[in-house]
TrEMBL record:
Protein name, UniProt field: DUF317 domain-containing protein
Alphabetical list of InterPro entries matching this protein: DUF317_SPDY
A Pfam family annotated for this UniProt entry: SPDY
Domain DUF317: 52-100, 142-199
Top-level taxon of origin: Bacteria
Length: 248
């Protein structure tokens, strides 16, 4: 087992185990700089609010929120809300945030921010997630069973993502989209969450149980004999063929 320095940059997969990361600008920056969303920032609390030019949607980043829901996207007429808790991977949140302008009718930069066309079933099958259906509900579970998307079309929260370890004892993060939220947002979030490509983190920013467990594949970003991403892909292939989790 490799011991990583706290400040060391690493690649982590699967990405739903990687925690939030610190690059909140990936979610907020494009809305501000490419799509002219206005923003207010309270340096004391870290609260950032973005408003769409049409005034129909806003995004809140609120790291002092008592219930842990640091990210809120809200739209009115129709009224819907998306919430993401503290440790939700930033890559999936950014994918949702960057899709908002197109869904509001602003097609600028659509070539740079593609929307996934894959249905939930397709994304699940492509990435090895299992699908279980009852009469009213579909449940998609990650290969390790720790990350679950529950899709219940008739519910108040039709899309519910949860990630936990040890049979739910330790819930790491949750994400929900309410009724009337565009299905494209759920598809976008799921596609970027289930993507097997690793994400970059400082080792110290990984959740404690990921740092000290065997569920995630962690490889150094530097000091690899080949490209770090090639090295990580090779380790993924070895791990898959071995049929058991291992940290590298």
């Amino acid at each position: 087992m490799t011991t990583f320095a706290p400040e060391g940059l690493v690649l982590v997969s699967p990405r739903y185990l990687a925690g939030s990361g610190t690059r909140i600008a990936d979610a907020l920056g494009p809305l501000i700089h490419l799509f002219d969303w206005s923003y207010d920032h309270d340096p004391a609390s870290g609260h950032i609010r973005l408003d769409s030019p049409c005034g129909s949607a806003f995004l809140d980043f609120e790291p002092t929120r008592f219930d842990g829901s640091w990210w809120t996207i809200r739209h009115h007429d129709p009224s819907w809300t998306a919430r993401f808790s503290r440790q939700t991977p930033i890559e999936a949140i950014a994918a949702v945030a960057q899709a908002l302008p197109q869904l509001l009718g602003d097609a600028r930069h659509a070539d740079r921010i593609p929307l996934t066309t894959s249905a939930l079933d397709q994304t699940a099958a492509l990435n090895g997630w299992t699908t279980t259906r009852t009469e009213t509900t579909t449940v998609y579970a990650s290969p390790d069973g720790h990350c679950v998307l529950t899709y219940e079309p008739g519910g108040e929260l039709p899309w519910r993502f949860t990630h936990s370890l040890y049979d739910g004892f330790d819930t790491e993060w949750t994400a929900t989209l309410s009724r009337d939220a565009p299905k494209e947002l759920a598809r976008q979030f799921f596609a970027h969450l289930a993507d097997p490509a690793p994400v970059e983190r400082l080792f110290k920013d990984l959740p404690y149980l990921v740092q000290h467990g065997s569920g995630a594949l962690i490889t150094p970003l530097a000091a690899a004999a080949v490209s770090p991403h090639v090295h990580h892909a090779a380790a993924q292939a070895t791990r898959t063929s071995a049929g058991r989790p291992q940290k590298r």
